[in-house]
């Protein structure tokens, strides 16, 4: 069996680091440039030598605790210097780090701990009281003050080989459970070798959560290549304008985003001005020709690259500069072989659809405690005379005439929502655990500039409270896995074979009421009416009541940022995303706006007698300008509502 395309593989890589461990690459950089800046966090800077000392102290601390080679260590904390020192320290001590995001729902974290069998946890910063650590034997708070007392020059650490595990990254699975992708040192080292060469420095913002594989590209790769890594604070990354200002301030040369966030950038004049000349890397979802055309119009001085990758391949496996004529996944990166095969593992010809398979040294060892799934997805490579494995991506694809990969869809039920990998069966399984739901089907639907999840449910003989259901889901699932819309049907349409007719369900429109709008006062202030108009534009749906919760009626963190940008631009106020999370209703947001305008010397919208002034929708205005023009905003991070808006070169 041979591929029908001679260029289905990337260039052969001669990697001088092929026999090295991940932390060895960092140590070599320490030897070469000890005084170079490795990490920039807020206004603090840390050299390679200093970061190495912190990491070594962490490794000694673990060693003193009886730590042995191969131990899995949970790493719980937000992006910071101690987290990076902890990650490197775990690797130096011979362990495998398992990122545990403190913003994930407790039930999700409990599943991750149980599946991985973690018994040691490093925690950085304030740990939420709800964090389920009852099964963890040792919880070790990690801060620079405590590490200061550890010896950085003690006895030699245990010997670690490239085949030892370096990281376990959890992604969405089926039956309501996440699956842990086991990555060895050799896999991540091979991934780092696929981009650039010796001495290549990546001036990019480190804004991906360690819980997604994107951190291989925006944290580990620059540290192995000479840095610096610029870690941006949460408050900066949550706002596309402050993010763009930081990119300019730090002289960063590239920015990694998903398509929905690029759309938001292109709608914001200041962000467009500040990002002129910066290379934009697009990942997570496919780009449409319309988005690319808009990019070329608004940012003609920038290059746009597409990147395609998976957790099971340590991140990126294909990339290429794109334009309106080639919105594809690109070509295989060096050291990677891509094959499009039919059900008999026979290569398909140009233009024919098949399933995409990958081979190369950057592949994962498999899934933690899932031998059956590992055997199904990772098979012996029938095309390689030297052995090796072939990974089944589940993506349907085809070759273009010039040898590029075009992603068509999925062969299974995994989808991407704002760059976050979601198994629809995972969401359905959690929905059906709710007492008011008998059966549930979840679909991915297009929503203009982004896609969203829609749940269609059969009630279990009782009324379904959408607000309570939304809260229930947020306690069990990361934000991007929570449907933005809920529809109720008496029963599901069936195919002749008895299976659910999902195509017929897709045309069903019986959306649940979200709140009791009859209880909402018919008269609104000018500001409330303006907020309703903005919500209608952003969510592309009907009018809302003053007591409606934005995150229950279909909003998410990205759309929240777009709302706040419009409010800020047109009301001349600065409302933070945290304030919106705490006051998510029309009335709550309007009161925040009026309060801020009062501080700035403006007047709140009231009637002459001091109560709320009624206005017609066509009279609604807010501050300096009208409300006719949308301004998108937002970028990827972990929101307080548990959403992974994470983005990067290879989020999966």
Summary?
This protein has 652 residues and is an alpha/beta fold. The chain is built from 20 helices and 26 strands.
Features:
five-stranded antiparallel β-sheet, 652 residues, 29% helix, GMP Synthetase, Chain A, domain 3, Non-ribosomal Peptide Synthetase Peptidyl Carrier Protein, Chain A, globular, alpha/beta
How would you describe this structure to a colleague?
It is built from 20 helices and 26 strands. Helices cover 29% and strands 21% of the residues. Strand 13 and strand 14 (315-321) form a beta hairpin. The strands form seven sheets. The chain has a five-stranded mixed beta sheet with strand order 11-12-13-14-15. Strands 16, 17, 19, 20 and 21 form a five-stranded antiparallel beta sheet that branches. The chain has a four-stranded mixed beta sheet with strand order 2-1-10-9. By secondary structure, it is of the alpha/beta class. Helix 1 (22-32) runs parallel beside helix 7. Among the domains are: 197-366 and 377-416 and 643-652, Rossmann fold (3-Layer(aba) Sandwich); 420-506, GMP Synthetase, Chain A, domain 3; 522-619, Non-ribosomal Peptide Synthetase Peptidyl Carrier Protein, Chain A (Orthogonal Bundle), CATH 1.10.1200.
